Amino acid sequence: MLAPGSQQIRPTPPAPQPEYADEVDRQLRRFAMAYAAVEENYADPIDERLIYSAAIPGMLHTLDPYTVFFDPDQFHQLQQQQSSKIEGFGTIVTVAPGRVIVVEAQVNAPAAKAGIQPGDEILEVNGYRIEYLNMEQLVELLTEAKRDKATLRVMRPGSAAMQTIIVTPAEMDEPSVDRAYMLEPGIGFVRLKGFESTSADQLHAAIEKLQAAGMKSLVFDMRENHGGLVDAAVEIAGFFLPAGSTVLSTRGRTQKEKVYKVREDAKPWDFPMAVLVNKNSASAAEILAGALQDHKRAKLVGTQTYGKGIVQSVYSLTEGTGLALAAAQYFTPAGRTIQKPTPGLAFTKAIKGPGGITPDIVVEGSHTVDNDWQAYLENANAFLDFARFYMTQHKDIPDSFDVSPEMLDDFKLWLLKQGASLNEQLWVANRPYLRRRLKVEISNLAFGVARGDQAAAADDPQVQAAVAAVKGQK
Do the beta carbons of residue 332 and residue 338 sit within 8 Å? Predict the structure, then answer.
């Protein structure tokens, strides 16, 4: 489903101008006559939902990729997303072909209350065996399961018996700031997943907490941030840019130029700062990144951003439906366009280059594996499976947990018992990699995925480049 537009949801759009009204009326009558003829004479009964799923989307598809119709269910999800609310079970899972394993069950969420624990493997959902499904079918099944009460068959590590667990989804808060910790003394890390109505408050609170812990510089992660509300981006810009600074401007065929500025009463922080972006940083994330770059407030680190510089006006229609329209174009404070050339959008033909924001420091993301043996272990899910086994043997993992030589020896014996391909040369050459991956997976199960991500950050080349960038600003 399309991510939220960068404007608040608006009421029904105005009627066509008088000069177009007669033609629109004629076209609508033609459509109604054609639909009536099909409904009356077609061999099988016609599902009225075809209007939602085929007729309207087919018309909009001829315009551009950003004009989208939402049926009632999709529009409800969009409204939830803008208010940072979701319906679900409160689990984080790892999904592989034929396997779904719970990595985290959030405290007081429906899954945890029903008895699901980190490390549990879900073998069956509502009678469907996981092992028989491909990735696309798995994702669809898990998405559908969150919409109603679900019956799960679960296998717990160390147990030979399956358990039946019934979980009922509930509405939960989904924080847009989901990571905040110290990378090293004096350098904090915050990740922002999206721009919703509560994002600015969450980010402000997270930064204040890090400052209380001794933060002097910040690595601000907007990788995989698909955007959201433009007002949230402008408010967050006020945390870092001087009062009255321009954040962006918009121009469109039916809209006058509008300039968005930081509030005059803003009290920004002035600590050194680096911003992480990648190819999936889009829309409002690109607005904020471009503003920070134009004002030379932060170093951008990572890869070229997505290039979505379209203002989307989202309108509420009748019967719970909605419509997102490409209405205008974003420009950074220096007048740069964010949008990449897009088929269907005539004004983008004049845009030169790939679109998006180019980082000050270009660094590719980390690769999961460096050789065939590492790929073999990853494909076999060896690290997570050993972590599940290890957790059954060690109930109390200390907060200061690290991977010891003895733990590596245990992993080696476990691999041999699983019949893994292994020789001493491979083992010695890959010990640092093995230690890192075990620390991540055991941290995930023992302390939650935030701690696992924190462990992984030590070997993330983009994060480490950002650390070097903030040190260089001191």
Answer: yes
